[in-house]
Design a protein that fits this description.
CATH class: Alpha Beta
Low-confidence stretches: none
Strand content: 25-35%
Shape: globular
Structural class: alpha/beta
Number of helices: 5
Helix content: 25-40%
Length: 190
């Protein structure tokens, strides 16, 4: 069931025209950068967008300008994911699955704390803050290991469905979702 939902959601997202995705990404970026969550965060944990995902590069660039530490994920086999700090886009190289990953070493990994901003990708979301990712289980495994910070999904509104996503015991819901229309979920940060 999840596999079919993921495939359909990714197909729909890929069909959004580029100019529309760019405009929606700009609006999502504005919601993030103007939020209390961003303003209060010293550290930004985020993915480096690829393909038709919500664009995150403007968030990274602004965070560096604002003097915030930016950390992005690196993955290894066995659902191992850790976050390494980067200071520019030059600190990235193409890694597994074609994803841009940090150049650093595992021993330099940083862990999110209570007031850090933690941005999460996904294929499909629901109004109960559940998500379907890309099938690797990396984020849920990470969420189970490290707790106590707010997890915020970045999504186009068309990726958020009214019907509940089927979940398993290992699926960990997010705290909020931000779309081009604003914040959804737990604490509001607008």
């Amino acid at each position: 069931m999840k596999k079919e939902l993921r495939a359909e959601a990714l197909k729909r997202r890929n069909e959004i025209p580029l100019t529309e995705r760019e405009e929606k990404s700009r609006r999502i970026t504005a919601h993030i950068l103007q939020s209390e969550a961003y303003q209060n965060a010293k550290h930004i944990f985020t993915f480096v967008s690829m393909g038709s995902e919500v664009e995150t590069r403007d968030i990274l660039a602004q965070a560096w300008k604002d003097g915030k530490m930016v950390a992005v994920p690196k993955t290894e086999k066995g659902r191992v994911m850790y976050f390494l700090p980067i200071q520019s886009f030059a600190d990235l190289k193409e890694g597994r699955f074609g994803v841009m990953e940090p150049l650093g070493k595992k021993e330099d990994a940083v862990v999110p704390e209570k007031n850090d901003l933690f941005l999460v990708p996904g294929a499909l979301f629901d109004r109960k803050m559940n998500r379907i990712g890309y099938g690797g289980g990396y984020y849920d495994t990470y969420f189970e290991k490290y707790e106590g910070y707010e997890k915020i999904g970045l999504s186009f509104a068309s990726q958020v469905q009214t019907a509940a996503i089927p979940t398993e015991k290992t699926d960990i819901p997010l705290d909020n979702i931000v779309t081009e229309n604003g914040w959804m979920g737990g604490r509001k940060h607008e």
